[in-house]
Design brief:
globular; CheY-like_superfamily; alpha/beta; disordered C terminus; 5-stranded parallel β-sheet; 6 helices; 139 residues; Sig_transdc_resp-reg_receiver; Response regulatory domain-containing protein; Rossmann fold; phosphoprotein
Length: 139
Amino acid sequence: MMANRALKVLHVEDDFADAMLVQHAVCEAGDLDIAFEVARTLRDAKRLLGRNDYDLVLLDLRLPDSIHPRDTLETTQSHAGDTPILILSGSMSVDAARLPDDIARLDKNESFRKSCGDVPVHLAHRIREAVGEADIQTI
């Protein structure tokens, strides 16, 4: 990633409120320069991945046009190339067993509970891990 531009993140999320919650939390952390683009369907995500380069894909597993978590992940991987993927899903408790062990994941329900402490910092930290901290422009 070039040091003079924001981290480009494709957030694949069909729930507009959840997408806004994540963006707000990351912006509240205040130390990452991130430009989010949201795709609400797997079809839109495939189209955007074909047209643009991203530094990270935040992926919900259950979308209106792809309800099978494994299919959603595999399709995204096939279109994302070398772009890292961080699964951010509210269905993680039931879907975790269906996913490869080496894929980065974050349970949306657990992450946004008040008992998890500082949600924005936690989410920003997980994004750093997924991309590789040396590649991230901080502000």
